Amino acid sequence: MTCGCLPEFLTDGRYGWAAECEKAFGTYPVAIVHEWNTVAHLNGYEGDPEARPFTREELQRFLDYADDQVERAVKAKRKGALAAYRDATLFKVIYGWGLRRTETAKLDVVDFGRNPKAPRFGRYGTLNVRYGKAKRGQPPRRRNVLSVMGWAVEAVADYVENVRPRFGLAEHPALWVTERGGSLRHSYVTHLTEDWVDRRFIRQQVGPSATVPLPCTRMSVMTS
Fold this sequence. Notes:
By secondary structure, this protein is mainly alpha-helical. Helices cover 42% and strands 7% of the residues.
């Protein structure tokens, strides 16, 4: 019996439950959920039919490929090695804690916490998801996710403690930082200034604490 059938079963006079309830309790059940005051789900599953879960073998190949990109960048002595390591860890966190994309992107380092019942995970025993999927018209829903996969905890711990500091943004709260994030922000301010955009507007865009250069200062070389 589905949940939708239960109210009908209780209130339908053919089954006698309404009369029995009135005798026993002095009142009887009535239906309060109807077609006109509920949202109809046309299908039992409304996701993309092409999407399916990875098999364990597919998932392992995917994560191995992400790790291989780190090794290749290190061997080639390319600057993207840190970013490759960050991305590989990000994928492991998505799987290891069952997160959505937005939930993952908006994580801060302090969102990890201890779980007294799983001391082996240290400061990574729980994950406070602050930007969970919201219902229509409501703010994001929060939830605490318990850490269950030791290898995922090891991966994020290594990233936070050994790799993330090398981005040079130790004071930034975000879990996922970038080498070029500051440069892009600086470029945004610089190029608006070079285009003689009003400095008050620029400050409004990037925040009052930002340093906005004088319009007469050429901070980059423009080539045609």
